[in-house]
Each structure stands twice: as structure tokens, then as C-alpha cells.
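Lab meeting tomorrow. Look over both lines:
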Amino acid sequence: MKILALDSSGLVASVALTDDDVLVAEYTTNYKKTHSQTLLPMLDELKRMVELDLHTVDVIAVAAGPGSFTGLRIGAATAKGLGLALNAPIAPVPTVDALAWNLYGSDRLVCPLMDARRNQVYTGIYAFERDEAGGCRQNTLLEQCALSVEEVAGRLNGLGREVIFLGDGVPVYRELLAERVKVPFSFAPACCNRQRAALVACLGAVYAREGKLVDADRFAPEYLRMSQAERERMEAADSQKEAAGAQRRPS
């Protein structure tokens, strides 16, 4: 099964192609250019380098959120366009779940941290357990969500197990983590601490086997939080309601 995978959910832009259990190609950048500048050129370069006929792709896997609102929209639009053009289904892979797969097989708890701004992170807590087939099963102890670092630390302290952190939220909150986390902890090295499309492809294969695929025209990213523009509209509407109520109240 050929899976073409995309991840533009955070600072990283990444494209990968897997064929069954083989990673054929991967192109990942973590630079200041926008995903609108990088994602399609990276896909085109990957296609050229491995002489990929896009019509042989079976599944389009995409990091479906949470993450950067703009990045998710770019990834979703690209995945939907490919899916519609190729008549290929989409595997919508939770971003934080895929990020945790960087540490597949770890005997410690795995806690990805993506900077969500406003003093929050997109996070989850995962444990990998070996199965009878010789592989590992990803157990979700805390489903991906938006929390403060203090709340994350409290959850981990309550579990009482050693944990390893990864993600772009680590450099932002490293000092706060050191202050609040009371269980043994460490940080993943540079080779495995950011999003990778290859991991999205791996989980996309799991989703395909489990029948968790959607048609391209039905796919939509999962934001978890409202965008800044939506929050501002809601706050403006609330302010207008309060002003209107004050005008109606007798003096």
C-alpha cells in the first residue's frame, strides 16, 4: 500500500512516501518560509526524485490537527485536492499522536508539546506497549488537547512515571517544566523531536487497516480551539450584547 503523507501542522513542513513498511522518500524542513511556499514544491521534488506516478498512491495521510490554523488549512487543502484528483481516500491522523511516534517503542511515557500560544500547549500523554506480534501498541493516556504547562505537569506527576518530552513547545517552556514536573524527565534529541510526515504515513497505515478513512470531500481539520479571528468576533458580539442590555436597563 502506497501512502503519501503531509504534515504542515506546526513550524515543520514535511512530505513523505511509504510503500508497505518501507519509507521510500521524505522531505522535511524547519525554516522560516511559509508552508504555502514550501509544501507543494517539496511534494513536486519528492515526486520527481522517486519517479512517482501519483495515480499509484492508495491513501493520502495528513496531520489533521491540532496545530497552526494556517498550516492546517494549507495541509488540508493540499490533501483534499490530491484526494479528489486521484480518487484516493484520506487518513486524517491526529497531529499529537503522530508526533509521539517519534519515540515509538519507548519504555517511558511520551509527552509531545506543541506551542499553542496564550500560555497553552497542544499535548497528549502516550505509552507504548509491546504486542504479541513483536510490534508496539500506542496507548493513549491523555487524548490530544490544549492545556497549560502547569496542568500537563500535574497530570504527569499524578501518573508517577518517567516521561520524555518533545515538540516545539519544549524550548518555550523548558524552565517551567523543570520547575513543575516532579517525576524523572528528559527531552528528545534533535533527530526525533519535531513533526515528520513519515510518522503521519505510519499512523495512516494503521488507520487504513482499521478502516478509519474518509472521502476527500468530507475531510476537515480538527482545530481544538477557535482561531483568533473567531475569538475576537465572539468577544465583540458579547460586548455588543452587554452594551444593548445596559441601554435597556432602567437607570
The longest strand covers residues 136-147. Residues 227-232, 234-238 have pLDDT under 50 and may be disordered. The longest helix spans residues 228-248. The radius of gyration is 20 Å.
